[in-house]
Amino acid sequence: MASSISYELFQAKQGVANGLATLDGSGKVLVSQLPPQAVETYKGVYATSAALILAHASALLGDYAYVTETTSYWYWNDELAVPAWVNQQITEAAYNLLSAAEQAAVPYIVEP
């Protein structure tokens, strides 16, 4: 038998923290109800990593930009001891030096 909740409890739980997400007119969860880590923000294209850092001294986990100098995407990794922009392309040796949390924070492309 399925459990049920009262209409009042259902209404009280909609759109609040630790409650039930509501949907917009197209049936999608509102961005405002997603945790910050779930929303990636594209910061644009930059000629160099220095230009990216100058434009965005800090960011949120998952934010990313394209750097033409390295022909790769760079992601903000706030799991590092000192949060920073990191190149998505990384050597296997460098990747192995990262903690599990640091590895999980960025969709790395590991190269030999």
The gist of it:
21% of the residues lie in helices and 22% in strands. It has helices at 7-13, 49-55, 92-96, 100-104, and strands at 42-46, 64-67, 72-77, 84-87, 89-91, 109-111.
Would you kindly provide a written description of the structure presented here, covering whatever features stand out?
With 112 residues, this protein is α/β, with parallel strands linked by helices. The chain has one domain (7-13, 20-111). It is built from 4 helices and 6 strands; from the N terminus they run αβαββββααβ. Strands 1-2-3-4 form a 4-stranded mixed β-sheet, covered by helices on one side. A two-stranded parallel sheet has the order 5-6. β3 (72-77) and β4 form a beta hairpin. The longest helix has 7 residues, at 7-13. The model has no long low-confidence stretch (mean pLDDT 87).
Give the amount of beta strand, in percent: 15-25%
- Topology as H/E string? HEHEEEEHHE
Quote the distance from N terminus to C terminus.
55 Å
- Domain module tally: 1
Mean pLDDT: 87
Overall number of strands = 6
Cα gyration radius (Å): 19 Å
Largest sheet: 4 strands, mixed
Shape: elongated
Secondary structure category: alpha/beta
**Count of DSSP H/I helices:** 4
Oligomer: single chain
Largest beta sheet: strand ordering: 1-2-3-4
Helicity range of the residues?
A: 10-25%
Unreliable segments (pLDDT under 50, ≥5 consecutive)?
A: none
